[in-house]
Amino acid sequence: MNASPKLVSKATSSFEKDHHIFGLRGILAISSFLWIFFETFIPAVATHSTAGPGYQRVLRIVFGTVLWDESLISSFFFVLSARAICVRFLKDPTADKFAGAIIRRSIRLVVASGAALFITYGIFAGLGTKYIATFKQTLPNHSINSPGVPKTALQGFNAVFDMFWVVRQYDSQAANAFWPTSTLGRVSLLYNQSWTVYFLMVLLPFGRPQWHVQVLALFTIGAFWMCSWGWYSACALLIADVTINPSLASKLASGLTLSEKRNWKVHYPLIGFLMIPIGLAMKYVWAVFPRYIDGELVLHPYLDLSEQTTRRQFAAADPYPRVDDFFVIFGLLLIVETMPKARNVLSGPWLVSLGRRSFSLFVAQSLLMWSAGIKLWIHLHMANGTSVALANLAVFITTLVAVILFGEAFYRVVDVPSQWLATAGYYWVTS
């Protein structure tokens, strides 16, 4: 291996220049904490599948739709990932940058996700899961499933291995079933859809800039027809491309031309400000009438023509790229990428710091709330007779502190070394 520590450090730090992207991840990390807490301890505030008092339903509709909506959070992380992984190559379109984007991500996600899963195996093998069943029945909470525990070491290893080979039914894979909150399948989805970005991004630097929008638009239309996540991937790549390519960036700054003769233009931030209310209006409709939440699938013709699936089966099989989330996410990105003040706000040190630790915090939130958090709730409410409200407050404060500490430890012990190992592995393979 010819990679020196200086080279590794330089390669790692050179990537982290789009600080506003980390800032957005930091905000999502906060939203994720809220969602996991509410989904676990006050489910009626996070989901319609568990009944609760009327005020909790109002909180879910009014605030949850924007601040802790699981679909919006996971889709936003997906888009920011696709937006970030192409930056190095688009700025310097060489073979080593292309190879590095693939090799580094593969090594890092395998190491970090594998470590997280093996920690999970150890925790729930020691604690068991009977206390979770007791908690679900006592609260009650019918919207969560108790995590499984691998019966053998080989089963646990295969769960990690399959994460990076399975290309469909992400929520049905073993790793997701072993993970508290059943959200680890999103990492598998994120990784496998990275290949769509890799395929498309290698074409862009060698084609005429004015054709980039048309090519990615055609791919987006096809992916939208199929209701494929490639629709999101292509749009995220387009956002990255127009901010990096000088020719496209100038057009982005000048606005969308409606009439050259009359010099009519619409600035892109305005388009973003129009997209967000459209997406939020859709989300509020689904929040008020949850039985129609999959109604937007009628917009994807493939599902009506396919003989292999129906809309109902498709919706039940996996998370899919939603139209409402698209308008909110890409409307916000249009605003952020075209307004320096918004980028400056998102580049605040504490938000960037949270964003860099977003995966570590994701691991900490799921593990601690479903182990120490539920255990503490049972001790306070069932053993000592503390009211549900006070037990929830104690769990919120305790797990918040614990998540910060555990997340920082995981970041320093697992996440940062996985980044170093990914870069070192890249130099070893290519040297």
Automatic annotation (TrEMBL):
Keywords annotated in UniProt: Membrane, Transmembrane, Transmembrane helix
Q: Which residues form the signal peptide?
A: none
Transmembrane parts of this sequence: 21-38, 58-86, 107-127, 213-232, 270-289, 358-378, 390-411
Protein name as annotated: Acyltransferase 3 domain-containing protein
Question: What is the source species?
Answer: Zasmidium cellare ATCC 36951
Q: What is the lineage of its organism?
A: Eukaryota, Fungi, Dikarya, Ascomycota, Pezizomycotina
